[in-house]
Amino acid sequence: MPPTPPPPPAWPLPKFNIRIEDLAHPGADLFLDNVKPLAALRAAVLASFEWLYATPGNAPTNVELIQLVLRPMDGVAYTFGSASQKEIHMSLDHIVNNSSRAREEIMGVLVHEVVHCYQYNANGSAPGGLIEGVADFVRLHADLAPPHWSRSPSPSDKWDSGYERTAYFLDWIEERQGKGTILALNAAMREKDYDESLFVELAGEPVRDLWKRYKAQFGVADEEPEEKTEGEGEECYVLVRPYNPVYI
């Protein structure tokens, strides 16, 4: 009789803590009525691992603690911390404003923010819109896209406009090139500084050409200005929704 194979390796889940700064806030009741904090945080981490690392052996092991802080504040959520300890702040007011779909919005925001705890960012040199797009790409594939998201870009949108705009573009690249392409994109930003040539390596074309092709399938004319040449100034990446994350 063949020997019993060893169990598969476990994902490197961190310790989780939660702090609720105002238990009397109606958003606190909505949170606790709709999700179990430990299960919700574990699910968010596993979604990040599935779409960015695929196997436990590839997943980062540096994150030892994720603390979730629920508090009244403007915006939606943000993440900060050290390499080993991360803190996610989520708005209780935002939960109240989405009370009709509280569970889906809570989980969607958690997935987005937990991705920021684990994704690579090319030593801090990757465009902010790409970082946000990867986080929403994972949210999209966790079936947690909110109803207001739209796949179709506008003529003035850029590939790195961020959030769902970039997430759907990355999803299109994933569909064309095969599952694991965005995983490979994330891996390529582990140790090297950002360079747009990585899109040529992963998807066969410069990212601007891919973006034009993506827009064309929606019948959208490309009105994005050409990239500035050296000396013309820096581009600014305007993040269109108030997640305000900090990446450490």
Structure description:
- α2 crosses α5, α5 (128-141) packs across α6 and α7 (181-188) runs antiparallel to α8 (197-203).
- The longest helix has 17 residues, at 102-118.
- With 248 residues, the chain is α/β, with parallel strands linked by helices.
- Residues 228-248 have low confidence and may be disordered.
- It has nine helices and four strands; from the N terminus they run βααβββααααααα.
- It folds into two domains: 11-118, no CATH class; 120-241, no CATH class.
- The radius of gyration is 19 Å and the shape is globular.
- The chain starts with 14 loop residues before the first strand and ends in a 32-residue tail after the last helix.
- The protein has a four-stranded mixed β-sheet.
- A hairpin with a 3-residue loop joins β3 and β4.
Describe the structure concisely.
This is Plant basic secretory protein. This protein has 9 helices and 4 strands, in the order βααβββααααααα.
| Rg (C-alpha, Å) | 19 Å
* Biggest β-sheet strands, sense, barrel: 4 strands, mixed
Total domain count: 2
- Percent of residues in helices: 40-55%
Given the C-alpha coordinates, what overall shape results?
globular
Amino-to-carboxy terminus distance: 50 Å
The average pLDDT value, as a whole number, equals 89
Reading the helices and strands in chain order gives: EHHEEEHHHHHHH
Low-confidence parts, pLDDT < 50 over ≥5 residues? 228-248
Strand-residue fraction?
5-15%
Structural class: alpha/beta
